[in-house]
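Please fill in the sequence for the structure shown.

STRUCTURE ENCODING:
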């Protein structure tokens, strides 16, 4: 990481904010997907969270990651912030106008593109920390299972996707907790399992450059 200059002042790590915003919104939606709350009319409680916390706050975290020069964090937070904004618009304005018999295909396609994105971000996350990698692996599984559930119109599969989403939210909260706690204490208090990728591939004599997104 380069040394800040007077023209590029140091800013706080936006990672814990982005992770917390993602975790909270994912948790609330997943409660409904897992059928822990059965009254689906209450699912609209997700929309303000998706707009302002999972959406706007996470998008801002992504912009600040660009400012810090963190390509991984910028791509992740900006994209998932946009995901939640798109979800809110889709649920509020698009779904009511879709044909009932084929609406599941549109939802499945919506989830499919995010599953693809999350899978390759999970690959990139192997160069960050174990805490971050856990978020992306569980999130990829969540998107894949929910995508299958939509195309297959399988309530049981959707419920499984909801439980995976709850696990994802817990992982994201943990990573956020670790980030904000370690930053506040100015030392490693909560483990994040750094350089996890080095343990997932055969040892090599030479390693690449700085790990993008390792602080996220």
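FILLED IN BY: designer on duty
SEQUENCE:
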């Amino acid at each position: 990481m380069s040394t800040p200059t007077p023209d590029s002042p140091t800013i706080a790590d936006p990672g814990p904010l982005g992770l917390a915003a993602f975790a909270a919104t994912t948790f609330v939606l997943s409660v409904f997907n897992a059928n822990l709350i059965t009254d689906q009319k209450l699912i609209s409680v997700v929309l303000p969270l998706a707009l302002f916390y999972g959406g706007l706050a996470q998008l801002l975290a992504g912009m600040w990651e660009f400012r810090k020069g963190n390509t991984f964090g910028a791509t992740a937070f900006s994209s998932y912030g946009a995901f939640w904004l798109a979800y809110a618009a889709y649920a509020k304005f698009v779904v009511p106008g879709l044909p009932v018999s084929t609406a599941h295909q549109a939802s499945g396609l919506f989830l499919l593109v995010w599953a693809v994105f999350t899978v390759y971000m999970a690959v990139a996350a192997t160069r960050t920390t174990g805490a971050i990698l856990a978020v992306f692996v569980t999130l990829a599984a969540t998107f894949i299972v929910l995508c299958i559930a939509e195309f297959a119109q399988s309530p049981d599969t959707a419920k499984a996707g909801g439980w995976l989403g709850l696990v994802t939210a817990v992982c994201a909260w943990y990573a956020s907790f670790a980030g904000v706690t370690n930053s506040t204490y100015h030392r490693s208090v909560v483990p994040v399992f750094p350089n996890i990728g080095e343990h997932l591939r055969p040892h090599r004599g030479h390693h690449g450059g700085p790990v993008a997104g390792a602080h996220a």
